[in-house]
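Aim 2 progress update. The chain analyzed this quarter is reproduced below.
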Amino acid sequence: MASVVILAGGKSRRMGRDKLSLPLDGKTLLESAVSKFRAVFENVYISVSDGSKYPEIDAQKIADIFPGAGPLSGLHAALKMLSSEDVFLVAADLPFSNPLAAIRLIELCGDCDACLIRLPNGMLEPLFGFYRSSLIGVCEAAMQNGEFKMMKLFDNCKTRYVEPEELGQLWNDRLIFNVNYPEDFEELRKDN
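Predicted structure tokens:
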């Protein structure tokens, strides 16, 4: 099975403070993500821009090789460090992310290099997706060329796009609900 890499390297500019330290049901958003995925996956790592961040979290950290270059930098560092392992990438600020949906995406990947959800409006969610170790060269080339957008990755690899209905009961609109702004966090607190 793939290793899970939880993206925790963002700057939380839109939130105005470290959103991954926000409390929810007695845990921080980051602690909750680690706990949830560790219950299902054997290997869970945290992708950080700085290896000294989040010392209170009991999980191995993977520091960006190209700091400040966004989620692609996190994926690149993970594939580089874990070399022959495939990676399920999940943003820590997706509080309703589901490890069982992650397993389903891994199963649906087939012989593709990447597998992610395509929403009915055509939007893609690359921060809840499966990436094979075969992508290390593509990531490396993108990073070296200063191309840091995740979406560009899919121009250079074989990608399986999963429609929500293919996830069956594992799908709901909140699966990829993202906490970026203070009002997102308030909505999350109201719903819990």
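DSSP finds six helices and nine strands in the chain. The longest helix spans residues 71-82. These observations will guide the mutagenesis experiments scheduled for the next reporting period.
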